[in-house]
Amino acid sequence: MIPMPAPDGPTFDIARPADWVGGVIFASPHSGRDYPGWFLAESMLDPHVLRSSEDAFVDRLIAPAVAAGAVTLTARVPRCVVDLNRGADELDPAAIEGAASRRADPRIQSGLGVIPRVVAQGRAIRRGKLTLAEAQRRIDALWRPYHAALEGLMAEAVARHGRAILIDVHSMPREALLHLQAPPPDIVLGDRNGASADPAISEAVHGALIGAGFRVRRNSPFAGAHVASAYGRPLRGCHVVQMEIDRSLYMDEAAIRPHRGFDDLARRLGGVIAHVAALPLDGTGLPLAAE
Is 12-277 in CATH node 3.40.630.40? Predict the structure, then answer.
């Protein structure tokens, strides 16, 4: 395969408010849709099929956070090129020649490592394997800049506000909820069962969603992946809550386009975003964690 050329533009975007009021960051690592020509040439899938792995339009849904006083971080690089919610060492031996997985990880085994082997429904992206050197080039050029930016924002938030609250926003296909008892949740919040965020912060996000009329489930089937694990350090003032939104609420999943429910979902979610962006620094108004 032809080695990846150097990126010809930014691989992510940061938007800052005029006044960053509380150290809150909303991020979307999976809504990137800048598909490089070299990647399309090496893939054996139609571009529309490649998009099935996107958290399509989540960047649009979180954009109001800036006006509410929070920072947004949104990826441009697509998830099927490099997955920003995986660790740099989550290498799939079935996709990368010479890679030796150091963990029995079901995500890697299913083809969803940091360099994905498949998109939705297990459809293979390319024939053959990448060399280990080529995989590392892609990680260095596309994965590391995003995480350097995220790490910098978290550190800046702690330095300026004494805390960082990262809401890592994703979307989930409707089919991922079909095994759950009806009615299925609209949103799944994950904090790694309390390991990645102070319970009071998770409860505040949960309460805001319930107040906006959303059905919410906690930590199942999604408790949080690499970002929550790597950046959630509550004892150091770094809190990460992952938010998974049912795609069918706002988009036609087959056509990958917003449907008539998008504006209503965006309005309701916008109220939640404004509430979370303004969570008090001194802890007043936050729910009390259970003893």
Answer: yes
